[in-house]
Design a protein that fits this description.
Layout (H helix, E strand, L loop, with lengths): L7 E5 L4 H12 L3 E6 L2 H15 L3 E5 L5 H13 L3 E6 L14 H28 L3 E6 L12 H20 L5 E6 L8 H4 L15 H13 L4 E2 L6 H14 L14 H4 L1
Parallel strand pairs: 1-2, 1-4, 2-3, 4-5, 5-6, 6-7
Helix pairs in contact: 1-2, 1-7, 3-4, 4-5
The structure holds NADPH dihydro-nicotinamide-adenine-dinucleotide phosphate (NDP) and the ligand N[C@@H](C=O)C(=O)O.
Ligand LPIYNW4C binds next to loops.
Length: 268
């Protein structure tokens, strides 16, 4: 049980990069923490640093979210620890190789982590949040969710899944006091790029955000009640116009009548 009024934030992928910054910022905001990733050693370092600077309780659970038994352990924790008030679904891997140069097994592993594990953790925690009438889920998607042409297509597709799931969760949980935020970072200076077989140095400097800035911006978006936060986007109106265009399509996406442009063959 947490002694924090803010409760416990569970952050996956907290051993480095964006997840480690979320851990720091959430502890500074008063959350106790449970940090999840594979590397026990790196998690312990992050936890020691944050506990030292903030005085919050920081626990670590070393788990490979692509290992069924490990994943089940984190699901059980999320379902049963009544002190948990927030889940940051951040653990993820990327790829930059095009389809013809990609390893299928690596693609499957990426789907397992970015999609399956995130989904299972969400399913584990939502009933508990609903039962307690409160909770927040932050899902780390990516700018490539809406621009899948930029990097590896399977990576983009996993992040589009995260965006779609978040939109749906927001609708389903609207009157349950469970808050959903999907964050769509652009290129961010972390180990992500090396792990994906690339290097952040090959990107133009003006395209790459610092991970501290990214997380601070994303949390500002959370504070403003945003469902979708695109930390790099200069003008929020651009996203609102995109979303308005999507909403305008919805009533016409399922109709019994075939539109004239597809009746050419029948008419001939
Ligand atoms: N950096 C960028 O440009 C962007 C990143 N993102 C997203 O941000 C998120 C965080 O990535 P970022 O911080 O950049 O990259 P990092 O590589 O620094 O962090 C990835 C984190 O995920 C953990 N992780 C990887 N595999 C597993 C696994 N099988 N089980 C549990 N934990 C795992 C890693 O820890 P460990 O190795 O110890 O398990 C690490 O803590 C990802 O979802 C990524 O897709 C989105 C857009 C842009
Ligand atoms: N969002 C970043 C990766 O996921 C990028 O846009 O490069």
């Amino acid at each position: 049980m947490s002694t924090s009024l803010k409760g416990i934030a569970v952050v996956t992928g907290a051993s480095s990069g964006i997840g480690a910054i979320y851990a720091d910022r959430l502890a500074r905001r008063g959350h106790d923490l449970i940090l999840v990733a594979r590397s026990q050693e790196k998690l312990a370092e992050v936890a020691k640093r944050i506990a030292g600077t903030t005085g919050r309780a920081v626990n670590v659970v070393a788990a490979d979210l692509n290992n069924k038994a490990d994943l089940n352990r984190i699901e059980a924790l999320l379902a049963t620890d009544s002190g948990i008030t927030m889940l940051v679904n951040n653990a993820g891997v990327g790829a930059v190789a095009p389809l013809l140069e990609s390893d299928t097994d690596a693609m499957e592993e990426m789907i397992a982590l970015n999609v399956t594990a995130l989904t299972r953790l969400t399913y584990a925690v939502v009933p508990a949040f609903v039962a307690r009438s409160g909770g927040t889920i932050i899902n780390i998607s990516s700018a490539v969710a809406i621009a899948p042409e930029i990097l590896n297509g399977v990576y983009g597709a996993t992040k589009a899944f995260v965006l779609a799931l978040s939109l749906s969760l927001h609708k389903e949980l609207a009157n349950k006091n469970v808050h959903i935020q999907a964050v769509l970072p652009g290129a961010t200076a972390t180990n992500f790029w090396d792990a994906a077989g690339s290097s952040v140095e090959q990107l133009p400097e003006q395209m790459v955000m610092r991970s501290d800035d990214l997380v601070d911006a994303a949390l500002a978006g959370l504070d403003q009640g945003e469902l979708i936060t695109i930390p790099s986007l200069p003008d929020a109106a651009d996203w609102l116009a995109y979303e308005a265009a999507r909403q305008k399509l919805i009533p016409n996406l399922s109709l019994n009548l075939v539109p004239a442009r597809y009746r050419i063959a029948a008419a001939a």
